[in-house]
Structures are given as structure tokens and as C-alpha cells.
Description:
By secondary structure, the protein is an all-alpha fold. The protein contains 17 helices and no strands. The longest helix has 34 residues, at 86-119.
Amino acid sequence: MSKHTQWTSRLGFILAAAGSAIGLGAIWKFPYMTGTGGGGAFFVVFLLFTVFIGMPLLLAEFIIGRSTQKEAVSAYKALVPGTAWPWLGRLGVLTCFIVLSFYSVVGGWILLYLLRGVSGQLWESGVTYERLFEQMIANPYETVGAQFVFLLYVIYVVARGVQDGIEKANKYMMPALFLLFIALIIRALTLDGAWEGVVFFLKPDFSELTSEAVLYALGQSFFSLTVGASVMVTYSSYLSKRESLTKSATSIVSLTVLISFLAGLAIFPAVFSLGLEPTEGPGLLFIVLPSVFSKIPFGELFFVIFLLLFLFAALTSAFSMLEIIVAAWTGGRQEKRKKVAVFAGLLVFLVGIPSALSFGVMSDVTWFGKTVFDIADYAVSNVMLPLGALLIAIFTPWKMSKETLKRELSIGTSHGETWFAAWFLFIRYVAPVAIVIVFLDVTGII
Length: 446
């Protein structure tokens, strides 16, 4: 990627970064993590982590990328040449690689549901959505084939570049998704028994909160904002030197929290209304939503539209992950982009096949009771992203000059000094201490 490549506007950057952040993290993963994590208490902890740890880390990644105008690995090389710190960028690339390997499987599920929705197969009488979902994800040919098609489109967009590919796609996808979510929530809240779901989601019961749920909330915060993998280092390297990082970060965090909130309001009232368990797991969305849409006038059409937008959200995140891999491998050489995008995308596909088969022919292959899919998800959310975030929280305030940090944070805002003082306190002391405490607690050391 040429270092001169830039987003055409701050809105383009915000929508792309928010698309990366929102994606499946907020729409697919947040509801089932909240369901298994205890509901309202999980949401409160997730919110606190997102605002007080996730946002300072997001700004840290922005500063690293924008100040160097380089992708993840080269940025650390430029700032601290001759040290081991570029391995932090490589850890981010590896994290994106593993995320995309199982993330593309879920993207494939969306494609398969879309086909069933368009063909009418979803709406046949006597269909139980739980059984339908289980049969679908157990079919090896369908799941692997759909994963491949999903990745092909991701490769195509990323190969086209930042402005013509990623930015153009996001400008239409994200606003449309938001509007459809509003319509879905209105319907979910008018179902019989919906209020029980609202209470579960928004009334915290901290007696239900375990140390493992707190770790999951931390991991979900990082997963939702895509921090800890240096994704935002690369994305912010394409941002103009005139744009305000604090305004961009505030917009992205606000959008991510809002979409997570909307996802919860759309899902949990429906879960309780339909008598389903909120602890359903990764299939929660695919079982609950068709049940809701089947009770709405023109629900079949609305569900197909929702699946299209859900697919867009999955793609926006997938674009960012493949972009980070491609940007690091090309090392700023634009002419290599297309070949590297194809090679990296196909490699991700091959590595992701065991995750695709985890619910069928490889469902018996487990470690510590987890399938390959579950292990990949757990490793990324609860180990690799928090580790990457911890290292970024150490690197930025201790290894970068205070003048650079202050200058980058002050651009485009009249409250530069205030922002810097608050951010520096959180990134230097609060974020690393909080991450370490959560880890020590979940391992039983404290």
C-alpha cells in the first residue's frame, strides 16, 4: 500500500472503521456473549470496558498509524527501529488472520440463510429454525463452499484498494443496516412477553457475573472495537493529517455501543417472547430472527433485506482484517496488492476449513471441550486481543515521545490539552492495570 493512499473524507474513515468495529462483533457476537454472560450486568461491564479502556486504546492505535503513515508492522519499525516491538504488529496480523479464518465461516452461514430466504425454504410450514440451523452448519459441502464464496468477495474488494473498494462499500452498507435495525426493534418490542427480555438485557444483576464473564466482556469490548490487533493502526495510516483523532474515535465508539445496544434490544425481547434460551450460543441470531420476521407482515421480504445488510456488516469487518494482512505483506508496494490479496485470502480459507467443519464432521475433535471454531474464537477474544491491547498500552505512553502524542491528539480540536491529560492517564495506568487484573482474576491468582 502506498503511504500516500488516503480516505477521501473523515466520514469515509469513520464508516470504514465503524464497519470494521461493528460487523459481526456487535451484531452476531454481542447478543450471544451477553446471553451467556448474564444479561444486564455483562452489558454494563462491557460498556465500562469499551469507554474507559477500549477508547483510549483505539486512540493509541490511531496515533501510531497516523503519525507514521505506515501499516501495522512498518509503523513500529519506524518508531522504534532495531527493537522487538514490530512483533506487536505481526501479532496483530496473525490475530486478524485467525479471526478471519472463523469469521468467514459465519459469513458463509449468512450466505446460506440468504439463499434459503430468497428460495422460500426458510418459510416452509413445519420448519423449526433451531433444527434447520443445526442441519445447515453440519453440512460440510455447504459450509465450506459458502465460506469460500464469502472470502472471494472480500478478496475482490480488498484487491481494489482503500478508496475504490473498502470506502465505497461502507458508505452505503452502514446507514442501511442502522435503519433496518430500528424497524426490527419496533417489532421485537411489540411481541407478547417482550418486556422480560428488556429487563434481562438492561437490568443488571451483578450476582450473576463471574470472573470469566468479566474476561469475556473485556474480550468482547476489544473484538467490537477491533483494538489489540493493530487494525486501526493501518486504517488510521490512511487518514489525513488534518482530521481530529478524538472526534473520529468518539464517533466510532458511539456507533459501536449504539449498534450493540440495538442488537440487544432486537434480540432479547424476541428470545423471551418466543420462549427460547438467551444462552443459545453462536446460533442465537440465526434461530431468533427468522422466528420474529415470520410474525411480521411482509416478514419474508424484510428478513431477506436484513440478511443482506447483515452480510454487508460481516463483509465490512472482513475487509479490515484482510486489509491488515495485505498491507503488512505488501510493505507499501501497491503493485503487489492484487496478488497478495488473492494469496492471503486463499490461505485464510484453507486455515478456516476446520472451523467450518466444527459443527459437523469435525464436531468430535475437541480440546478442553472446545471445537476448533470455539478455540479460534476463544484464543482471539480472550488471549490475543487482550495481549495485543496490553502491549499497545505499554508501548504508546512509554516508547513514543510525549510531544508526538500531544500533537496528534490536539489536531482538529480546541480541547487538546484536556483530551491529552485524560487519555494519557488512562492509557498509561488504567488500561494496563485493568487488563492485568482481569487476567489474574480469571486464572485464580487473585
